[in-house]
Amino acid sequence: VKMINDLNKNDRITNEEDTIQLGTIIGHLIDHKKLILSSMVMFALIGGLYSWIATPIYKADALIQVEQNTGNSILTNLSSILPDNQPASAPEIELLKSRMVLGGAVEELNLDIEVKPKNFPIIGRLYNKFTGNQQPNLPVISFNVPSENYNVEYIVKTVSNNEYELFLDGNKIFSGKVGERKEVNGVALYIADTTLTQGNTYTLKKIAEVTAISNLLEQLNISEKGKDTGIISLSINGSDPVKIKNILSVISRIYLSQNIERKSAEAAKSLDFLDKQLPEIRTALDESENKLNLYRQQKDSVDLSLEAKSVLDTVVQLDSQLNELTFREAEISKLYTKEHPSYKALLEKRRTLEDEKKRLSGKITALPQTQQEILKLTRDVQVNQEIYMQLLNKKQELSISKASTVGNIRIIDPAITNPEPIAPQSVLIILMMTIFGAIVSIVYIIIHTILHKGIQSAEQLEEMGMNVYASVPLSELQFDKTNKGGKLKAKRGILSEDSPADVTV
């Protein structure tokens, strides 16, 4: 029976040892409060140091309005309630993300060229922060390499205030001067005319245009503000506040320009057609005038009779009206079919004019041969003059129309960069690191408590069958002197002599 009781006691003691009471854990945390505070301070300092040396990140934004095209209000209302109706700004957002727009920005701003100062990752930043020696940017205007060397890192070293050297894998490719384009074996570099700082080193990389467009698309944030507002927000983050502002400015300008060009495309095509036709009509006019003058010289300046002049004026007016109907028919054919009343009225008027022209042609055949020839040549001159003047007037109208074309895109807020960086957020980083330091130290203390359990009370010894004759309270003074003596080799005295009133004595 005694053996069974001893076994039960040992099992109970073992279970108690395996169970860590909450009060015990809290007590250990209080005992190690200095460790916790030290850990919090250390991690807070690390967070502050990171915030100090981290590269600040800025944000630029812009606002663009997409104005709705006016149309049939009934159809517009119906389309707005249809399921899966696409917002009007959705196509414009995709257009902003297209290679046509972003590719133009990449080409104009040389975003396919990456230039960075070459420094040690952490030590270099710390040194620059302490000394205030910020390495200036290298103004690269163009950099071309063979396609197989895309994404390959080149090294540029400044050897004087206007000279540099280009290296690849430690091998010198060429030496060059600022303001001059240098090319050797398919590698070409052009640095703007500026004053260099001797001894600086830069990394230079050429990336494919498609890759540069993809990188730019990842940086851009394009979204509609609200639902069906037609207001598109553009934003981009970056370490260079001027660069990100220029990126949004160029994207907005290219997008606006293509919208206007798309709206004025019809007028542009008509102008191209007129530019080709005007020289031909002018040539025909000159030829008809030369033929008329030559015939009059041959016939001793024969003049038309009053009757012939009347017929000529009428024929010229008819030809002018027929030419005008041709222009109107070209415009109406884009809007209506030939069965439309407006189109039918135009064709009927054309037939009437052509019948009248045939009737006058009968009068012309009744005139003498010389009069007929003079009338024919004079009519050719006047008709060509009318056509030429009509084309000139039409060209002026189209030029005005093209110049005054306004797209349905409007830049509300031009690109601007917030002067205050959005990252790193120093206060938040320090706070999070402080909390993290507290968590690390607390977890360490709890694990240490679990793995290093000891005797917590005299009752545990008695339950194990050991006799306890006395319990001596812990002397804080003796404990501190013992710790100091262990670390500083200090001389330890007798507690009863040093502190006779101590509870332990």
Automatic annotation (TrEMBL):
One GO CC term, this protein: plasma membrane
Pfam families given in the database record: GNVR, WZC_N, Wzz
Gene Ontology terms for molecular function: protein tyrosine kinase activity
Keyword presence, Translocase: no
Keyword Coiled coil tagged: yes
Topology relative to the membrane: Multi-pass membrane protein
Ranges of residues in domain Tyrosine-protein kinase G-rich: 369-448
Coiled-coil blocks: 271-298
Keywords, sorted A to Z: Cell membrane, Coiled coil, Kinase, Membrane, Transferase, Transmembrane, Transmembrane helix
Transmembrane segments annotated in the record for this chain: 35-53, 427-447
Superkingdom, taxonomy of origin: Bacteria
Record domain Polysaccharide chain length determinant N-terminal: where: 18-109
Localization, UniProt: Cell membrane
InterPro entries assigned to the protein according to its UniProt record, in alphabetical order: Bact_polysacc_biosynth/exp, GNVR, LPS_length_determ_N
PANTHER family linked to this entry: TYROSINE-PROTEIN KINASE, TYROSINE-PROTEIN KINASE ETK-RELATED
Name of the protein described by the UniProt record: Tyrosine-protein kinase
